[in-house]
TrEMBL record:
Transmembrane segments: none
GO molecular function: FMN reductase (NADPH) activity
Organism lineage: Bacteria, Pseudomonadati, Pseudomonadota, Gammaproteobacteria, Aeromonadales
Domain of life: Bacteria
Name assigned to this protein: Oxygen-insensitive NADPH nitroreductase
Organism per entry: Aeromonas rivipollensis
Coiled-coil ranges per UniProt: none
Length: 241
């Protein structure tokens, strides 16, 4: 192991923060790390909104599903897919393709992971906020996101006020395959993992529950997943072709 790998393997989502601010130097390093991520075809099809207004933060916390830490964290960054900049440079740019949305989403995630790793290396912590997509139109209006700019997710950052237990990940044999995708799912290995997750949820220090991973996935994928999203994306100039 080395310090970088140790840092990656120690990841935990932090949702409780001290009042201590993130320094300007720390924020600069975090943003520089974010911009240093790989960019498909060097399109750089992303923008970040640093939300410092407490009123806006409070509204975002409600729009994201009443997640108080959106308002309480020292910093909140909104990651966006952005082709507005490109259309201003090239007015007849060919946009609206699904592939372009995938590039914006993938590259945005790469930027965010760089940002969080940089923050963790500085002794900070954070949590991603996918709940931003609960109300993407309202978020866009609130923050003035123009046509061809969409909110992907947020990132809370701050000084940790908790040290939560680490969630066990899927066994590698269920995730990493060699040369071909397996024809069948290893149910025995999955059952072992379900038992591990069941014990984790029962024993963790907060938000205890009786749940397996398979049960959790059934609950999530057994209902509609933001069915309004396609209409919103198309209204913003994405997924038109």
């Amino acid at each position: 192991m080395n310090p970088t790998i140790d840092l990656i393997l120690s990841h935990r989502s932090i949702r409780q923060f001290t009042p201590e601010p993130i320094s300007a130097s720390q924020l600069d390093q975090i943003l520089s790390a974010a911009q240093s991520a790989s960019s498909s075809s060097f399109l750089q099809a992303n923008s970040l909104i640093r939300v410092t207004d407490r009123g806006l933060r409070a509204t975002l916390a409600e729009l994201a599903g009443h997640q108080a830490y959106v308002a309480e964290a020292a910093e909140f960054l909104l990651f966006c897919a952005d082709y507005q900049r490109h259309s201003q440079i090239v007015p007849d740019a060919q946009t609206g393709f699904v592939e372009q949305l995938m590039i914006g989403a993938i590259d945005g995630a790469l930027m965010a992971q760089n940002a969080l790793l940089a923050a963790q290396s500085l002794g900070l912590g954070g949590v991603y906020i996918g709940g931003i997509r609960n109300n993407p139109a309202a978020v866009s209006e609130l923050l003035g996101l123009p046509h061809q700019v969409i909110p992907l997710f947020g990132l809370c950052l701050g000084h940790p006020a908790q040290q939560p237990e680490q969630k066990p990940r899927l066994p590698r044999a269920l995730v990493v395959h060699e040369n071909r995708y397996p024809e069948t799912l290893d149910r025995a290995l999955l059952a072992q993992y379900d038992s591990q997750i069941h014990d984790y949820y029962l024993a963790r220090s907060s938000n205890n529950k009786v749940q397996t991973w398979s049960g959790q996935i059934k609950a999530i994928l057994g209902k509609e997943a933001r069915p309004f999203m396609l209409g919103f994306l198309q209204s913003k100039g994405f997924c038109l072709k």
